[in-house]
Amino acid sequence: xxxxxxxxxxxxxxxxxxxxxxxxxxxxxxxxxxxxxxxxxxxxxxxxxxxxxxxxxxxxxxxxxxxxxxxxxxxxxxxxxxxxxxxxxxxxxxxxxxxxxxxxxxxxxxxxxxxxxxxxxxxxxxxxxxxxxxxxxxxxxxxxxxxxxxxxxxxxxxxxxxxxxxxxxxxxxxxxxxxxxxxxxxxxx
Amino acid sequence: xxxxxxxxxxxxxxxxxxxxxxxxxxxxxxxxxxxxxxxxxxxxxxxxxxxxxxxxxxxxxxxxxxxxxxxxxxxxxxxxxxxxxxxxxxxxxxxxxxxxxxxxxxxxxxxxxxxxxxxxxxxxxxxxxxxxxxxxxxxxxxxxxxxxxxxxxxxxxxxxxxxxxxxxxx
Lengths: 189, 170
Known about the structure:
The complex is a heterodimer of chains A (189) and B (170).
Chain A: H1 3-6, H2 25-47, H3 50-66, H4 74-94, H5 119-129, H6 133-144, H7 149-156, H8 160-187
Chain B: H1 9-17, H2 27-35, H3 37-59, H4 65-111, H5 116-127, H6 130-133, H7 141-169
């Protein structure tokens, strides 16, 4: 039983804004099961901080449940969830210094990589830490989640037209870093 | 190859998305990806990110969904209560202001008169025919005061409620 049944019509004034009724507990559990790992992976890899990813993921779901989720189905709901996560990441980065995310030097975002045990993390982790946060977001959404340019624009709030160019540059840079890393790894015994 | 891509990039991306790269794709396309910088980067980056996604998802420590759902319910409820509380507080402040203004105006108008307002108070129950409703109503001013002040306060409160509903309607 949700609190709306105890206090009926409390949100009657918001009737026009409601896109979809709030998720019930069971429905949410299913959605959480299907989306949580992908969201955590996104937040952890983009922030390079697993503990922060834990906090932001919980907050993302709480905000998702409190907002008027889109009525287009689970794919749109998932995209909306990633958008909330992206905004929380941006808020987190902005908090320590009162400056634009674009003005903060890249070194500021380079958190120590504490759990580099797996192969892919060992390969991708150092290269990701040398990328700008926005580029990490774009790359992850495009190549890990498989979102289209239009969907990435919707999630990140960037102009759809600029995604292609930004992504092209980011991909070129990380590919170069991955190749350099590969060469260095081969040199070392 | 164009400025920001290759004509065959979409083809390669589609095969990567379907998981058919590299084994279930034409050898000619594999050869192209080996020679084309754009397609080569796409294959390299996609592969690295796909592996990273799989492995990161496997190590995720997920909290149970129940507490999250209840936390969200609690937050929604608090937000709704806060929204309701705001106009009520406004109406209360308005009613109090009206009461004080009426009382102050009345006292100011009667201040110059030589206790004439005391007799007005004494006459008020008779003028409003309260004795018909409540035959045992006291007649002295000291006893009437307990009745007149609440009546004025109720009138002021009602006016506040009317303003509140009018504002809500808007």
